[in-house]
Description:
Radius of gyration: 22 Å
Order of helices and strands: HHHHHHHHHHHHHHHHHHH
Number of helices: 19
Number of strands: 0
Low-confidence stretches: 2-10, 482-497
Largest sheet: none
Helix content: 55-70%
Oligomer: single chain
Distance between the termini: 30 Å
Amino acid sequence: MNDRPGNGGGGLRAGALGTFDSVVMAVAGCGPAYTVIALIPALVAAVGLAAPAVLLYCAIPMVGIALAFRHLGRLDVNSGATYSWVARSLHPFLGFLSGWAVVVSTTLFVVASTTPAGRATVSLFDEDLAENDVLATAAGLGCFLLMAALVASGARIAARVRAVAVGAQLALLLAVAVTALSQDVHTAEFSFSWFGFGHFDAAHTFTAGALIAGGLYWGWDVTANLSEETRSGRGGSGLGGLIGLLVVAATLLTLTVSANMLLGPDAVTSTDGGFLHQLGEAAWPGVGGTLLVLAVPLSMIATLETTLLQATRTLFAMGRDRTLPSFLGRIHPRRQTPVAATLAVGAVAVSALTLIALTGSGVAVLGDALMGIGLLIAFYYALAGISVAVAFRSVLFASIGNLVFLGLWPLAGTAFNVWVLAASIPKLTGTQLAIGLGALALGLVPLAFARVQGGRSYFRPRPLSPKNVEAADTHFADAQAATGPAGGRRDGLLSDF
């Protein structure tokens, strides 16, 4: 397996995205409005007033994983991201399973989130019709097909649509949160104790909150899968992911604090899906609820698109390396997008959603899928944290900054994700475990086939090493020359800190 600077020799359009686009992508991947309405009430129910503490302390190790992605991406610009990095740092078998975990988790998320996205969209017009599962699935499928068309059309076109959706939802969320914080009448006065450990007890444990927070901080890593298409992809995509994660963490913290002050934990957990509406009404009576609920379909549609991008780029890299059928590595000759991988994910999603709509019995499984994929996410995040420490082991002790930002912090992120993985297993149902662990185990089948039949260069990788990065940067700069300046300084390997 070779380095793939620039367009990687694989034909993806280099320079289609900038660092700003990467930040937008990372925020869209986390889908703050969608995760707020889906998970913040559950988080508050689990830990009460300590929700801000959980969000803050879980964000810290997750930043360590974002640092791992940033620095691994500087050594290897590859649309497969962890699929390539883990193979070259640890072992090709682990790398393949990491890529498989990304493909399965993102595809399952697309399938599981399409019906809720359709329901949120229909609810803007008629709340009663939104309860019709068939109609919601059909509306969601329409949104998905639109996103698939945008993804196939090229990263630049899709980026404009995404920027509007992300900007609108962030503006609405932050405006309501700031308005709520500035009001004179509050259910509870702000207290710094919400960021401490005094509110945790037998009924409100940090572990229960951390299991939910792990899902809130997933999705920003889509930027790594677009590194081959990003200007300054050897640094820009990783920086975008890191900044995007911090933006999402700040947004979630602000909203949770404002919910504590304006509504209180009891009101947040008793709104039966109307948390954002109630928070908006409390901030701007009469219009706030409607405006804030409008952010939900915007968030879900943007998240569907970024998740589809992550799935298709990983599949493309695996097809290009022939560890999966080689046709998945085909690109559109003019638009330079992974058309075969996009069609494959689209076919799976459409088939599954059609079956769900026709039978009606599969809707309940979608919630189990969303829980099960958390195991897959923790798995590949943990491997990324280990990989960066191994890849940079020769320079870890060259400075305090290297030790902290390339070793200790990413490894803390690994420890957090391993703990989340271990703590989740006893709490999940058999169906959820089967979806998560079963899907990962299923990856052993194509892995064995790839080891015997194809992708042989992938199983003899050249190890990642920071000693090769100067030559790789020169090669990357030459490959990007046709796209014009990246805008801003060219990052050095460790110049951030």
